[in-house]
Amino acid sequence: MRGLIIRKLLTTMVAGGAIAALLGAGTTATATTADVRATPFEISGELPIYPKAVLKNGSTGASVRTVEARLVQLKLLEKRYQDDSFGTMTRSAVKKFQKSKGIPQLGYLDQNTLDQLVRVTHEPTQTELYPPAPVVDGKKLDPRCATGVALCIDKSTRQLRYVVDGVVKMQMDVRFGAVKTATREGSFTVGWKSRYHVSTLYHSKMPYAMFFSGGQAVHYSSDFAARGYNGASHGCVNVRDLAKIKVLFDEVQVGDKVIVYRS
User: Fold this and answer.
1) CB-hemisphere CA count at 13 Å for 127?
2) In CATH, what number does 131-261 get?
3) What is the dihedral of CA 170, 142, 257, 193, to 10 degrees?
4) In this structure, is the dihedral angle defined by the CA atoms of residues 126, 127, 128 and 132, taken in order, positive or negative?
5) Domain boundaries 53-127, corresponding CATH code
6) Strands 159-164 and 167-175, how do they pair?
7) Is 53-127's fold the same as 131-261's?
8) What is the Cα–Cα distance from 250 to 253, expressed in whole angstroms?
9) pLDDT tens digit string along 60-95?
10) pTM of whole model > 0.85?
11) What does the domain layout of the chain look like in residue ranges?
């Protein structure tokens, strides 16, 4: 269709240009409707008009968390993805909701989708929005471990806890890097996994490695199993219980949270 429009426009321009050339050469030309015909645009159908996005992929903040909590209520989103960030899983949940309501599956939240979502859910409670941090041995874990799936790693107690929706599923001893090769603290995610990894830098075995920050990973350490806290890693989080980390490796998925902190 676009090619047809362009061809008609060019036909009109060429005809008009020919008349102008004749007049410029001093030739008398009489333009009649038989000589030059006006060529109107021919447009078939209508251009789609999309509703304005209220929240979309990449949006962050408390408003996103509230929407995610409503989607969790409808069991369209797993609680682990309630994280203040409008990402792939939130987008997928929004599309599922839109499909269920006969709304065009835009994948973002327009005002109509938001209104319908509010209509069929209740206002999220404070506990739904911010579940209390798990308590282990009378001590609260980092609040970032309260939702979703997290490897909650406490440098103070030298413990790694595998937490799912606020419930501690596994707990194991860990050790960290030395002063010059300190294990980084902060909020990360598992970027990739390698069951039989060998360090290209130190040429040491790092089985059941779950990388979360550059070359730093949670992995089994035979040195930690043999020497305990007399040694240190080059920045990784060492685990000495081989049986436990085998199970943990299979449970943890790429994208799961890794929280390294001091209690």
Assistant:
1) 2
2) 2.40.440.10
3) -50
4) positive
5) 1.10.101.10
6) antiparallel
7) no
8) 8
9) 999 999 999 999 999 999 887 888 899 999 999 999
10) no
11) 1-46, 53-127, 131-261
